[in-house]
Input
Amino acid sequence: MSGHYDDEKDLRLRIVGLGGVSGRKSYYPELQKKVRELEREISERRAIEAELRALKAYLYNVIDSMPSVLIAVDPDEVVTQWNLGAETFSGIRASDAVGNPLSSVLPSIEPKLEGIRKALADKKPVSMKKIPSHYGDDIRFEDVTIYPLVANCLDGAVIRIDDVTEQVQLEEMMIQSEKMLSVGGLAAGMAHEINNPLAGILQGVAVLKNRLLSTMPANLKSAEIAGIDMECLLRYMEDRKITDMLSSIQESSERAAYIVKEMLNFARKGRDAVHCDLCSLMDRTLELARNDYDLKKKYDFRNIVVEKDYDPEMPSVLCEPGQIQQVLLNLMKNASQAMWESGASEPKLSLSVQVRGDLARMSVQDNGPGVSEETAKRIFEPFFTTKKVGDGTGLGLSVSYFIVTENHGGSMYLERPENGGCRFIVEIPLVREG
Output
């Protein structure tokens, strides 16, 4: 307002000056004309200033309404503008930021200062995509663009920062999904191929045991022709533990065939719900977890003590077995990783399948470190993960939650036992409506 006052005072003084030129009446018309011109000039200036104030407020409103962080700096990298997005991003008010060096106000921008200097020197925009930044224990990804101010004799630059963490995570998830589809197809094809030699091994072992260990007439006749005593042959084979070796080969081959069968069942994308024995499904999933290559490589699931609590009167339940198995396998793998990473001295997994009213209730509980209340609130959020970067996408539990709630009309939740660990509960209706 002082500017308006000074301008008007100046004009008023000019009017008074005109009035003091002469006291003769002949000058009055000229004086009145000058006064009107000066008053019109005052009015025009007021209108222009009001328009400038409105334009300034509008521009500030536009800048503050943008979701991006917008920061302007002068050639010395001192902050000259700090929008609302920058306040939200940094927790620092504009009044505390403007006039201070950018590096002292926002230390996290230090790695990006070279780009700012390059933009100032070359007078060309500089763009940096998906730059990782550390905020405490979190890693966020940002797109940073620096626009140099090159018009109207202005010096400095405008920095725009956009948080693209969710976009990066989504892209990684899509890439991982495509990769897993390829790996899944490859695994299914390999499983089919493995079945053929396994069948040959099993058949060969069965024939060997039948021809070496049996006293059927054909064996006795061939031994007599060859001059071999069958009893001596049997004693030799037992003494050299050949019979045990053959049994071990047969047992291992049958186990491998069972694992291949479960892999194929798990990979099969059936859409039709069938009546399923949930106790048997839990056991088959446990067998899959025990033979998971990644688990054995890092944590060795087989060293975990497993306790089971199955309802002997548990009825069959209409569900999509492959999807429910996916949920249970994810819970078992998460439990295994949590226990081993926390260094549990006696890792224990408790599995339960029970009837609760009109619901089938399955639970997977570990004795690991448990989770905080804040983590428990977000545990089923997409992309939320407590694992190290690269160890998980944060989608396992959110996908499991979707399978249970949307595809099966059930519920899934987390309990935090008083003695530690986590207990994940999966409930699905015993009778599906519709």
Q: What stands out?
A: The mean pLDDT is 80. The longest helix spans residues 165-213. The first strand starts at residue 69 and ends at 73.
